[in-house]
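Quick one: structure for this chain?
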Amino acid sequence: MTVTKTTPDLIIGSHVGMSGKEMFLGSAKEAVSYGANTLMAYTGAPQNTKRKEIEECRIEEGWRYLKENGIEQIVIHAPYIINLANTVKPEIFSLAVEFLEKELSRSTGFGSNILILHPGSHVGEGSEKGIARIIEGLNEVMTKDMPCKIALETMAGKGSEIGKSFEELSAIYEGVRYPENLRVCFDTCHTYDAGYDIKDDFDGVMEEFDKILGKDQIAVFHINDSKNSKGAAKDRHANLGKGEIGLGALHRIVHHEDFLSIPKILETPWIPDPKDPGKTVAPYKEEIALLRAPLL
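Got it. Here's what it folds into:
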């Protein structure tokens, strides 16, 4: 692989951290260091509800740095602990609704108009009940004029996850009061693990998606290779070209003419540090360059 030119139209970035004294300013610096022109962040740790007050997050400074470096849009990811599909424990559902409402407000405060959300897991009660519960929760938090859209992520089908099929996502769209405020985050690893042949027939998969949901509903792509074969339902990300999907297919997806204006976010695993194999480092600078370069 050699670089002969860059692709300026490509909107590509990665998940970045946010912690310490610099908070969002640090996120901005990290993204720029990778050569990114977008980023994805959590407004706090994805595993818990602890959050700094938004006034402490240095958002204005972060945006000033982003704009100085040509970055105009970001996306926020909701924490994993939000499970709107839980019909077994009312307290889990109530927490999910309350916290999702807060995360929507925080996403707007961070200057994002997209909040990515895992639809949830039905914890053994079946997809139909889980989807009904998701719809109930979304209807509690969604308003007609909400500035931040909720992007439901395509899931691998691990355990009792909902969102492994386009039809399940469509059922959520059909049930909510304000479907115009929903979007989709298309995760390549998850979709491949769920059984969609994005490796050899991405256009065919997109034709199916378009019939069920509409291609215009895709607001974000998560770009990940998969450690597993198609349909494995395991959700194990791999670095670009190191998995079963392969660099060629992922490169074609990233450069697909229908989605050039859609942000592409890398969530690939960190790799051993060449200088210290006992540590790991982010692969994003190299992988962004790999995706910007034409395949030869």
